[in-house]
Automatic annotation (TrEMBL):
Gene Ontology MF term list: DNA-binding transcription factor activity, RNA polymerase II-specific; RNA polymerase II cis-regulatory region sequence-specific DNA binding
Feature: DNA-binding region: 41-100
Transport found in the keyword field: no
UniProt protein name: Homeobox domain-containing protein
CDD domains per UniProt: homeodomain (cd00086)
Location in or out of the cell: Nucleus
GO biological process, one term: brain development
Keywords per UniProt: DNA-binding, Homeobox, Nucleus
Predominant localisation class: nucleus
InterPro entries: EMX-VAX-Noto_Homeobox_TFs, HD, Homeodomain-like_sf
PANTHER family documented for this protein: E5-RELATED, HOMEOBOX PROTEIN EMX-RELATED
Cellular component terms per the entry's GO annotation: nucleus
Annotated SUPFAM superfamilies: Homeodomain-like
Amino acid sequence: MIYWDCMCLRSTGIKCSLNFEPDRKYGDIFYCVFSAYDSSAPRHRTAFSQHQLAVLEEEFQTCKYVERSRSEELSEQLDIPKPTIFIWFQNRRRKYRKEIECGEIG
């Protein structure tokens, strides 16, 4: 089965019947990007080494948002693609917010 993801800006007030996340807005132009993926195909998951995780966690403790130049350095240092680093930080921020909500972090 094929699903479509619709990348939209929630702030536009435009309703999207598909799953969506904020993307871009230029002036009053609303912009929607569709990408198809096959739900039956196994998802690729990056398996990070202990060293990679330690470096990424240390960087996260320094700054919750990785800068482009720093992500390039980390990419070369850890041999991880830049988009994977950005996704790791995004997921780690989500986990951090969840820990705060649950009271695990004071």
